[in-house]
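question for whoever is on the cluster today: can someone run the full assembly for these? two chains, 688 residues total. i dont have access anymore since they changed the login thing
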Amino acid sequence: MKGVQVLSRLTVAAFAALLLIVGYDGGSVSAQTLMNGAGATFPYPIYSKWFDEYTRVDPSARFNYQSIGSGGGIRQITERTVDFGASDGPMTDEQFKKATGELFHIPTVLGAVVATYNLPGDPKLRFAPDLLADIFLGKITKWNDPRIAAANPGIGLPNQPIIVVHRSDGSGTTYIWVDYLSKVSKDWEQKVGRGTSVNWPVGLGGKGNEGVTGQVKSTPGAIGYVELAYAIKNNLPAPMVRNEAGKFVQPSIQSTTAAAAGAAKNMPSDFRVSVTNPPGDDAYPIASFTWLLVYKDQPDHVKGQALVKFLWWAIHDGQKYTSDLLYAPLPAQVVRQIEAKIGQITYQGKPLLAAR
Amino acid sequence: MSRTAAHEEGAAETLSLPRFVRSARVTGRWGDQVFRLLIRASALALLVIVLGLVVVMIMAALSSIRAFGWWFLFTSIWDPVAEHFGALPLIYGTIVSSVLALLIAVPLGIGAAVFLSEVAPPWIRPPISFLIELLAAVPSVVYGLWGIFVLAPWLRTQVQPALGATLGFLPLFQGPPYGVGMLAAGLILAIMVVPFIIAVSREVLLAVPDAQREAALALGATRWEVTRLAVLRYARSGLIGAILLGLGRALGETMAVTMVIGNRAEISASLFAPGYTMASMIANEFAEATSDLYLSALVEVGLLLFVVTVIVNALARLLVWSVGGAVKEVRE
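^ ran it for u. tokens below:
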């Protein structure tokens, strides 16, 4: 009997506690600003870190971000079902026209894509740009091809067929890779072109970074491409690639940021730019921005203000979280250019950014 | 239904039941009506959902249907950049991988079911059945990962070289051994559908009346003859149902297949070559499909998958009916 009484008392207490929690939540909802976003999967880890850290800066800001892919992000911001979109590739002119207002591309961080391969003895290879293009075009089919040998003197290359592995799922990683190949090879640009998925001339498709890595690791003679962060975390061989300036550059966080710095001089005002194969001695050539997509003229004053404050924070204080998560931070020149852009975001014609 | 209702009414009148029972009868009649409405609504809802699916898919696929017409079914180029789409390799890959899976899974599954229902000592049945159900509950992504890291390397290093050396004169077993490809997809699908086939077949076989077996035994049949003539023949339509369930799962399976099939939209005679299925294509490319025509083509692939499933199911129904008729004749 006593047990039952205690139990019922406990239930009442639990109920009261629950009410308190619910009541508290209900009270704070009114003061909160919930911003909905959707888009790219590649920057999702840094974005969720930011959304979490940012609540300490502005306790009223709440974010709901769904990493459904860049394509979905562009569609949703175009249809205004979210407050901001995110994409790994700049919107095309055609997509731009469909939007019901002017959309700003705000670069947030940089990522890079590296080649990875499986050869006996894990030799440290170096690639010239045309080599990568011709391997992925199926023109170079053996590892001991004289052109690969010429770029890698002193390394014994096996007489083994090259098995190309690419991403099977549509992905920003693929976009960066083929965008680079299009820039360095006329043949690639004409036959294959750019896109989040393309009609691959040769090779097998693996799903996601892990699918590509799995197939490369289990297939001797395979070559594939993965995100730099993924390659670093998994200790995959990441070969040097010759850049625009003719230097062989090791892929790294620093050389990725250097790529954006190299591109800063010719930055278009809308930031819709590919930074693959940029000028600069230290620039790793297969790199790209990832962008947040926001309307120039915000439809909601409170949300617009919160969003602008967050963007400002992200390109300044937010950048210090990039290195832990293996993203490359924005170079200082580009940050200054973005500052001006954020200043242009308005609500009913009035700038939302408070004077600093 | 009306006959039983009338029957109940008649019974209530003639027996002059106590009052509380009668009132229960009245509410029971209400209950009947509500029940009838509810089940009708659920059946109708299902119909509406299916029709709605078809209508929405056709509407979303319209621009692709207009752009490519029937060529969509008969061309093999899938080029999102040039926006040229043809689904033939996807249809081919879906059907071939599923048929391959059934070729492996049906003998295995029905064999195991016969063992469990006819031959195995009773104490061994529960643990084996439990294991089979466990196999059916493994998520497909786990099968896929196992496929990449265990099955594909094994195929590449052991199975495919051996097959190529012995049966290499057949076009089925030619070409470089990649590990991943149609063969890997068929195998992984077989492993995934076998538990379903076993579980359903076993229930069907256990439902065969013992009189069947006893009659055959009385005629001097051996165990093989009893199984073949009295049990399997009697259970044939149920077994086909089990196989169909497996086929349905094989046609629609996405994740595991995507991870091991190689994802190359090409038709090749060799089972070693990579392929692509409709479900894999949708799963792979839907999230990043940005242009309208591209998206529309993917929806049309979904529509095609639906149509293929309907056709396969209809064919199988026909098969069940014809076989069912034959069994009746035998029984009579």
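summary bc i know u wont read the tokens: Residues 73 and 214 of chain B are 53 Å apart (CA to CA). The first strand of chain B starts at residue 78 and ends at 79.
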